[in-house]
Amino acid sequence: MDKALAAKQLEAVLKQASAYTGKGSVASYIPELAKEDPGQLGVSICLPDGTLLSAGDADVRFTLQSISKIFSLIIALCQNGQKQVFERVGKEPTGDPFNSIIKLETIKPHKPLNPMINAGAIAVAGMIQGKNIEERLNSIVDMLRKMTGNPSICVNEAVYCSEKRTADRNRALAWFLKDSGILTTDVEETLDLYFQHCAIEVTAKDVARMGMVLAADGINPQTGERYVPEEVARICKTFMVTCGMYNASGEFAIDVGIPAKSGVAGGIMATVPHKMGIGVFGPTLDDKGNSVAGVELLRLLSQEWKLGIF
Amino acid sequence: MDKALAAKQLEAVLKQASAYTGKGSVASYIPELAKEDPGQLGVSICLPDGTLLSAGDADVRFTLQSISKIFSLIIALCQNGQKQVFERVGKEPTGDPFNSIIKLETIKPHKPLNPMINAGAIAVAGMIQGKNIEERLNSIVDMLRKMTGNPSICVNEAVYCSEKRTADRNRALAWFLKDSGILTTDVEETLDLYFQHCAIEVTAKDVARMGMVLAADGINPQTGERYVPEEVARICKTFMVTCGMYNASGEFAIDVGIPAKSGVAGGIMATVPHKMGIGVFGPTLDDKGNSVAGVELLRLLSQEWKLGIF
Amino acid sequence: MDKALAAKQLEAVLKQASAYTGKGSVASYIPELAKEDPGQLGVSICLPDGTLLSAGDADVRFTLQSISKIFSLIIALCQNGQKQVFERVGKEPTGDPFNSIIKLETIKPHKPLNPMINAGAIAVAGMIQGKNIEERLNSIVDMLRKMTGNPSICVNEAVYCSEKRTADRNRALAWFLKDSGILTTDVEETLDLYFQHCAIEVTAKDVARMGMVLAADGINPQTGERYVPEEVARICKTFMVTCGMYNASGEFAIDVGIPAKSGVAGGIMATVPHKMGIGVFGPTLDDKGNSVAGVELLRLLSQEWKLGIF
Amino acid sequence: MDKALAAKQLEAVLKQASAYTGKGSVASYIPELAKEDPGQLGVSICLPDGTLLSAGDADVRFTLQSISKIFSLIIALCQNGQKQVFERVGKEPTGDPFNSIIKLETIKPHKPLNPMINAGAIAVAGMIQGKNIEERLNSIVDMLRKMTGNPSICVNEAVYCSEKRTADRNRALAWFLKDSGILTTDVEETLDLYFQHCAIEVTAKDVARMGMVLAADGINPQTGERYVPEEVARICKTFMVTCGMYNASGEFAIDVGIPAKSGVAGGIMATVPHKMGIGVFGPTLDDKGNSVAGVELLRLLSQEWKLGIF
C-alpha cells in the first residue's frame, strides 16, 4: 500500500462522503448527543505497522455508544466462556430496531436474539464480573486503553448522566430480562454499567486502533501482544457482519462488505481482516441509527480499495 | 325472586361447579398466592334490597388483584375526567395476555389498549391524585369500605410485599410507559400504588356488594347514596364485558353474558344490571388467569336464572 | 314512544350527524365502492310493531360488506352447531385491523380469533353447506328476504366482481387458513361465496328490519315467525358488542353502547334489544373502516333515547 | 492441499458427523420428502482444479429446495439489475422462520426482508423473465447444467407435484405479495416456477461444483468461463452468510463461518472463497430446517481445515 497515495484517496473519499452529512440528523433521544455539530466527518485508518492515516474530524471526541457492545461482549466471553454467555443471549440477527422489546416476548426461551441489540447488550453487562461497578467498568476501559495505547480514555460523565436520565426504554428491556431470569444481577446497577460503557469517549483514531486489533485476530500486530483471544475476536467480527449495523446489517454487508459496528453518537468501527482497522465519526444518523456519511464513506473506501470480505 | 329457592339453587350450582376446582392451578408467579388451598369455592349474591345469599367459602379472604383495576379506573375518571384518562389509555380489547408488552411497541401512539390489562392499569394508577401514595391508595380503599359497608377492608401486606418482589414484568411495562410519556409520575411509586390496590383483601360477600353498586348504576339501592357517577359506572360495566375476563372476555360474554372482572387470586366480581351483584372466589385458574370453577359457577347461574344481558 | 316526536328527533339527529360526512373518505380498495357519493347519510328505524321511521338517504342501495358476516355466521351455526363452528373460529376480539394476518401465525392453534374479522368470516363461509355456491349463497339471501319482507334483495354483480378482482389480501388469509386446516373447502369457491355475500345489496330500511329481528331474539315480532334460533341471535348480538365495529368496538361500546355491525360500504346494523332495529348508511369511513357520520348518528341517538345496554 | 490426506480426513469427518443423523427428522410437510431414508449422509468437495473429493452418499439424488433460491436470485439479478430487484425484496436477515408471514404486514413498505425466506424467493421468482414458465425455469436449469457440467439435471416431477399440492402457506405468502404490489405476475404461475426450481434434482457432487463456481467469483476456475457476474456472486455469498441457514444463520456464521445455503431436502451448498465448493446431503433436519448431520459435518470440516472466513 502506497501510504501517500492512500492518504490522498482518503481525503478524496472524505470529501465525497461529506455531502451526506446533511442527509440524516443527530441522535435526539439523548439530549447531550443532540448538541453535536451535524457537519462533522472524520476517518482514521490504522495499518498493521501502526501507521495512522486520517482525514477530517479524526481528533474529535465522541462516545462509543453501541460500539462498546463489542467490548463488553469480549470481557463477558473472557470471564464466563462461550457456553455460559450464549445460554443467556443468542447469535441471530433480528430484523427489528435495536431497542425493540417484541421478540423478548414472542421468542421462547425469552433470551435476546444477539448481543448487539440493546436487550442483548444489557444481558451481557449483567455477566461482567467484578466486586463493584467501577471494577466491572474498568475491565472494559483498561482493555481499550491497552488496545489504543491511549491511557486517557474514560467515560464522558455528561453523556453518561444524560443517558441515564433518558433511558427508560432500556429500563423496560432490563426489567423484562430480569423477569425472564436472563438478568440475575441488580437492574439499576447493570444499567449503570451499560450506560457508562456506552459513554466511553474516544476519537476516530482510537477506534481505528481498536479495529486493527480485531483485524489482527486480537493482537497488536507490531508487538504481538494479545488483548483478545483469537476465538473471541473471530466471534466479534462475525457479529459485526450479521448484526453490527443494527437492522441495516444485511444491506451494509452487501453494499460495503466489511465487519463493522456503529453507535448512535455517529461512530463506526470497521475491521478489514489482516489489513486495517477503520474508525469513522459522523454524527448525523439515518433512520436505523447509523452514521449516514460514515456508511457512505466506508462504501466508497471499500469500493476504492476492494476491502469487502465476500 | 324467591330467596329460599334461590339459596337452594345457589348451593346446587356451587356443588356442581366445585368439580372444576381441580381443573386449573393456583397462581404461581406471586409466591404468597401459591399457598392458597386449591379446593376452595365460594359465592355470594347481593340483591338490591341488601340481602346476601351465599354458599361455600364466602367468608374466606382473598386479594382483589385485577378486580381492583375497576376501582382505580373509577377514581381516575372521577379525578381527571374521561377526556384526560382516555388520552393515555384506550378502550379496545386486545386479544393478548394481560401482561403482554408487544402492542405497546406496535400500536401508534404507544398507549395501552385498555385499562384492564396490566399496562393500562399501571397508566391509570399514574393518574390517581393525592399528596402521597397513602392518600392515593386511601381514595380507593375508602370507596370500597363505603360500597361494602365493611370498614375493615385493607391491604394484605404479605401479598403486597410478595407481589412487589416478583413484579419485574410489571416494572418492564411501567418503564415502557414512562418512556412513551404515558406515565409521568415516579415509576416505583406508581407501581407501589398498583401493587397495593391489587393486594386489597376482601371476601366474596364484599365483592357481591361492590357488584351490586355497579348494577345499581353507582348507588346503594337501599339508601340511594351515590358512590360512583352513573356515567362512570356505565363505562366500567362496558369494560367488564369487552375486557373484564382477560383474553377470554369474548368467550365469557357469549357463554355467560354478564359484565364481570376477574383477578388472579381467584376472585370474580359480576354485575347483573339492576338485579344483583355477584362475588365469586375460587383460586384455581385456567391458562388465561380466570378462576376455572368461578367461571363455571357463573355460567350455570346465568343459565339457571337467565342473567345474560344479550 | 311518540312516533311523530321520534320522527322529528330522527331528522334532527340526521342533520347534526351530516356534518361528519366530510370527515372520512369512501372505501378506496374496492373500486366500485370508491364511486359512491360521499355526502350521503340515511337512517331507518324499525319498531317491534313493524313501523319504519326514516330520514335522509334511507332508500339508497348499498352492499352489506362486513354486516353480512353476521348472517353467514347465523347460517353456519344453524347448519353445524356451536361446537363445530367454534372449533374453527374463536370468540375473542383482536385489537387488530380487520384484514390482519399476524395472529393467524402467532396464536396457537392457528384459528381466527373471531368470525367478524375477515379471516374468521372466510372460515365461516367454508362451513356453509350446500351442493354448490349458488345454494350456499341462497341460504343467506333467502333468510334476508324473509327477515326484511323484501324479495328483491340480491347480489350487486358489479361490486361482487370488483371485489373479486381486488381481494388478494383475502386470498392470502384464505390460503393461510387452508394451510392450517381451518378451511377444508375449495379456496376460490369459498372466497367466491364470501365476496358474494359481502356484495348483497340492501337499503337502510332493509337493515333496520334485520336489526329488529335480532332485537326480538330472532323472530318477527308482529307475526311471531322465527328466522333465527334464540341462542344464535344472542351469540350474534354478543359478537356485535365485542367485535362488531372492527378494532373500534370497545370504543363504540362505551360511547354508544348498542350492539352493532358495520361494513365498509358505509352501512351499520344496530340492534336495541326488544326495542328497535336501526339501519344506517353513510359511505365515508374513518381509519378503522366504520362510517364516520353513521357512528356519530348512533351516538346522538343513543344519548337522546337512552338506548345503551350498559 | 494433500488430496489423499484430505480424502481421508473427509471420511473421518463424515463418520463422526453420521452420529447426528439420528438427531433430527426428515421434512414431513412435503409428503414426497418424508419418504427419504433418514440415515443417509454424503459430502463432496470441489477444488479449483476440478478435483472432486467425496464421501458417503455423494451420488444420492435430492432436490435443491431452498438452495435454489440462490440461483433464482442470480437469474433475477442478471435480468433486472440490483436496483429493480432490491426495490421488491430487502437485504436484511429476519430472525423469523422461513415461512413466516408476520413481517410482511408489520414492516413498511410490505416487501420481504430478504430473498432467502420463502416470501422473498417468491418475489424473486416473479421477476424471472421469459415467455412462459418453461423458458423461465430453463434459465435456471441451464445455468446449473453449465456450472456442474451435468446436462441431466432436471426437475423431479414427483417432488414438484407433491410440493405443489401441499404449499398452501406459500400461496398465502404469494397472495399477500400480490396484494402489496410486490408480485405483479400471475400468482399460480409464479408459484409453479418456484415449486419447480425448488424441485430441481442434484447430488452432493453437483452442489460442490456449484459452490466452487461461487467460490471462484462466478467462473469455472479451470476454463475461466464465467457463469455468474462477479458482483452477483459476491451478493449471493453475502446472503449465504447473513440469511443462508434460515433463522440459524447467525449461529452458523459463528460456529462454522462459511457462506452456505441449506434446503429442507437436507442439502447444503457451502462456498469457501477461492478454495472450494462443498455439497452436503443429510435429510434429517433440526427445528430450523437445516440438516443436522450436515451442519455438524461442516462444523468439523471448518475446524479441521480452518475454512472460516472470519
Automatic annotation (TrEMBL), chains A, B, C, D:
* Keyword Hydrolase listed: yes
EC number(s) on file? 3.5.1.2
- Residue positions annotated to bind substrate are S66, N118, E163, N170, Y194, Y246, V264
Does Hydrolase appear among the keywords?
yes
Q: Kindly give the SUPFAM superfamilies that the UniProt entry links to this protein.
A: beta-lactamase/transpeptidase-like (SSF56601)
Which Pfam family, just one, is annotated for this protein?
A: Glutaminase
Q: Which InterPro entries match?
A: Beta-lactam/transpept-like, Glutaminase
UniProt-recorded Gene Ontology molecular function terms:
glutaminase activity
| EC class (word) | hydrolase
| GO BP: any one term | L-glutamine catabolic process
Family matches, as HAMAP family: Glutaminase
Protein name per its UniProtKB record: Glutaminase
